[in-house]
Amino acid sequence: MKQRKKLIMLCGLMLAVSSPTYAENATEAVSISDTASVVELTSDANMETEMQSVSDSDTTETSAQETDQVALPAIWQETYTYLADTQDAHTFPEQIEKSGTSYQLKDVQYQITELTKEYSKSSVDLWAYAEYTPEQEIEVDGLHYTLVDTSKEEWTKNGRSKTVSVERTYLDGQEVPESIDIESTDDVTGEAIYGTIPRTDWQDDGADWWEGGLEQWVKYRWNEETSQWVFEVGDESFPAASDDSPWFDGCENKILQSLNLDGTFNQITGIAWDSEGWQEADGSWWKSVKATGNRMIKRSRAWFSGEVAEADLPMVRYTSHYVSDVTGYLITANVTYEEIFPEPESTVAETEAELVTQTPETEAETVSEQAQVESVSDSDTNKTIAGMPWQDLVLLFLETGSVALGLIMIGLLAKFRPKPRAWINTKKENKQKGEK
Fold first, then answer.
1. What letter would DSSP give residue 187?
2. Owning domain of residue 94
3. What's the whole-model pTM score?
4. 164, 197 in Cβ contact below 8 A?
5. pLDDT over 70 at 398, yes or no
């Protein structure tokens, strides 16, 4: 500022004492004119350089701002899959570090799947027309299950048969067959079935009374003297009780005796007239009597067994499907982290400036800016114009009063004008960015 004031005072004196005189010779005029032209060119060049510097600074700052806008934080994603008894959110680290870069937790997305168990229960093979109702709820190994649906499998059962076994007793004299015809019942439908089954075994089984197995005939003679029908055994005669019945006391044993049958193995249970009577050639009358009873004979036992065919049958089998209560949860967590940028130093400085209105650091910065302005002014005074210090040009103007030198001085005033504070601050910020 002091240099500028001095320069203004010198210019004022030069203009005051100067008169519109012309150069004494053409050589001097040309030299002065060339000098003024050089001054103007030099001044314009300096101004263009300053403007270009400011423009380059603005371009650099704009590029830096664009770079800041484009530089987005990096994203780090991790996926966790785990089992849990509840749906409660899991706690993940708020900050992590990967490959030297720090990340901050940004978001967690959960995918939850309920875990259950399945159970199937099948019925026995049933006739298609049989009733079936599945259980709605069951418990298996302490876990509760609920019926979901029931499916069925249908088919026709062919080649059905039923095993039929029969045991029968035969007495001596009775024929034991190789097979027998039997009648049975279909256990499913209840319908009657018929078939033939073979004898599988046969063996003696002691003795037994053959009821009705004794049939014998004896004769009664008509006694003219007593007018009775009598039964004669040897020298003994036993009259019948009446004309209607041949019975007499003890007749059972007497009849068996006449037949030579042992009373231990034979029993007479009844006797009856069996004819109207007849007359022999000698003139005697006879009448037949039938004795019936039981006989003790050998006994045998026979076993018969075989398959009896049954009709084709429509069949069905039911399968019930159950699902248990929730046993747990399968959780997939998609965790997103965002890169943490370090806080810029300029931001820290601005924040501190807002909190503290005036600090020793602020005063030091102001003094530093003034020193920079003075340094710029002092450095500019050391510059030359057309190879001559600008101070010598001022003295030459005072001696000659040349109009050209006055123009040069005006150019100097324009060159060494004080720079705006905003421009200085801009260059300072650009310089700080370059150091970073």
1. T
2. 75-116+328-339
3. 0.40
4. yes
5. no
